[in-house]
Amino acid sequence: MRYYKNMCLKLLPKMPSLFLGFFLCSISILLAFYSNLGMSPWDVFHMGIVNHSIFSLGQVTQMVGFCIILLSIFLGVIPGIGSIFNMFFVGIFVDLINSIGIFRTPENIVEKILMLIFSIVLMGISTYFYLRVELGAGPRDGLMEGLVRKLNKPVWLIRGTIEITVLTIGFLLGGPVGIGTLVSAIGIGPSVEFSFRLGKYDSKKAHHMNLLDLYKDINGTDGVDTIESRKSV
User: Fold this and answer.
1) Is residue 226 part of a domain?
2) Is-contact 45 169, C-beta < 8 A?
3) Its domain of life (predicted)?
């Protein structure tokens, strides 16, 4: 019980940053959608499924995320609590914000371009906020990590293959492909990198806590201060 209480005290301060990241990520997705210039490869895939189902964009995002987490576990990648929350809450926020109706597709091409650019910038910022707390990456990053380990191939090849695959399937299902898809594919990486540098977050030195680590910490298997000890390694 003492370990559980200590763990809660350590996790609670991380929640605002984690959920701010999810919220901003959801806004970024909707901005790209309403720019009507094309979405990122994964969101093209999500919208393709939406076109042939009774589910909303948020619900499809959740279901795809759930399937990806299961596949990642099979590949040997244990998700973190942040990964699980990402799967649920990004979808919830997407549907909630969309239901309010605050976004509309602009008639002016300049406004559409600005909306797309802001979407890319916001995606970089949101990624920083939910990764900086080191509670697990998003489900899709976990899949990439698992395939890199399993196939022993470089990250760029695995990531590129995944995104081309989901983009192709999404396109065949009628997902919104456009110039924005290419711009997003090229621009999101630098946007994330810039946000990391601005926030002084080094992803190479990050030690994300997965669910197994969380279980050990709660039960005191590795001692009360295991999170801090991992960071000091």
Assistant:
1) no
2) yes
3) Bacteria
